[in-house]
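[step 3/7] fold_predict: job queued, chain A
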Amino acid sequence: MEITINDKKIDYEHASIMQMLDSAARIGRSADRDDIKDILKKVKEHIVIHFVDEEFIFTRQHPMPAEYVELHVNDHKRIQNEILLAIDTADLDSPDEIASLIREIREAISRHIREVDAQMNRYLPGGEDAQEER
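[step 4/7] structure written:
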């Protein structure tokens, strides 16, 4: 998946999250429970930090319309409540459940990037709805 929003930091974080999930998927069937737990903890932490970075951009660095901010923040909350909570409750002794969990996280993040983050591009400098810099 190659969707950019034209913010180098956010684009890098998107790629990094996907690489972490790819790595987790590759080793998920052969790693022991503690290794998987550590990897998924890092994935979760990285996603949470990423959400903070995005929210800084659209509330402080490049303020965006309130409706978009609300949509975006609500999707972050949904992912944290539904998807990231699953990391804490997953049966990490089951390779099938690990694989399913990783797919679920990947799908949620991919959808968020395609459907929510992609809209951010229009409000960033150079975007069609960007606010003029003061």
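[step 5/7] annotate
The two ends are 34 Å apart (CA to CA).
The chain has a mean pLDDT of 87.
exit 0
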